[in-house]
Amino acid sequence: MTDERAALAALLRSADAASALARAIRDLAEGLGTVRLMEVCGTHTVAIRRSGLPSLLPESIELLSGPGCPVCVTPDEDIDRAIAMAGLDGVCLCTFGDMLRVPGSSGSLERARASGADVRVVYSPLDAVALARRSPERQVIFAGVGFETTAPTVAAAVRSAAGLTNFSVLAAHKLVPPALEALVAREDFSVHGFLMPGHVSTIIGSDAYSPVARQHGVPCVVAGFEPGDILLAIWMLLRQMRDGRAEVEVEYRSAVRPEGNLRALELMGSVYEPVDSTWRGLGAIPASGLGLRASQAAFDARLRHPVEVAPSKGRPGCRCGEVLVGALRPDGCALFGRSCTPATPIGPCMVSSEGSCAAYYRYSR
Amino acid sequence: MCLAIPMRVIEKQGEIGKVEQGGVVREVSFALMPDVACGDHVLVHAGFAIERLEAAEAAETLALLRELMAAGEQEAGGD
Ligand code: SF4
User: What is the A34 CA–ligand 1 centroid distance (Å)?
Assistant: First the structure.
């Protein structure tokens, strides 16, 4: 590893840097009154809660979790569709591990597997393609969930599956910028700055958040994943607020460019196109998801293996929707820690390890 | 779900190769990041290298961080 990167990585993990940053944050926060900052990345949520980082901040700074956990924002209908497909004859449904336990309106992929469906966890979408190649008698469906970090990998897998007739993708990807724009346009929106997701931004580039900063006047900083990264990004957000600026700045400079990864974006765009999509908590948002292009119909599981799913009735008492937009802290839900715990989860925000309810339960009670 | 791990490229043949970190070796695809070379550090997500980590940019963040730490020390000394 080059010296700068190694030195930076070590420093970002050090207690010295953390206390210096905490001090610099306190200094800046003094003149700012109450500051509400939102992280939009499940990996940040976990890093913040696990490190106990909020205890380093002055009380005037509140950290909220936004719609940053891909499986949490995936609506019941999409999970129900995956479960229904897994139940079809001759089908093998492949998914990332995060999806397995997420509840649909009744059951989960894990339960479908326990009752005999062929559901397999893969590390890479390429593993699903390899499986299809090895098992010509099976119809392999890959459940394509995730944000822009993941969508290009699935697009690349579709490309590599050219010629295979037993591989398809259930596209349920979500796009971060349209959701943020919908969030800031809400009447109850009261967040002063965004910590933007580092790895989503690796793909889409920091320029993708310009409308949020420029048109809506909300400061944005793209942050890395060490506690020091997040503290430095918080300091940068406060500095923007102090200076009366609303811009997109990048703390995670080693990995994020303004234009993103053009090759990944091009591949994603050749396989997928933006489609209207429903987010748990935010509802339907135009062009906020990805569907397979008509030219990729041969790989579109929705066309190849059509299933009927009923509209979801929701979960009585579960307030994941409000938690996902920062309108409610997890411990504000009456079920939190009582009937809803990681061992007996009720909503997706408690099931997913990246969900805010799970992160609060594990580290912040 | 968007977790990506920094790893070092140790082998590359066209779009396929191997990366290593802390003794763990993984096969990856370079389909999303074709222009990397052995010795480069990349972020790996779901079996793909998704970005090369740039040392020059790390240096800028490092400088900012050191500046903040030095300012903090001065202030602490003056208290
Ligand atoms: S604590 Fe459980 S029931 Fe309440 S919002 Fe979170 S996941 Fe839903």
Answer: 26
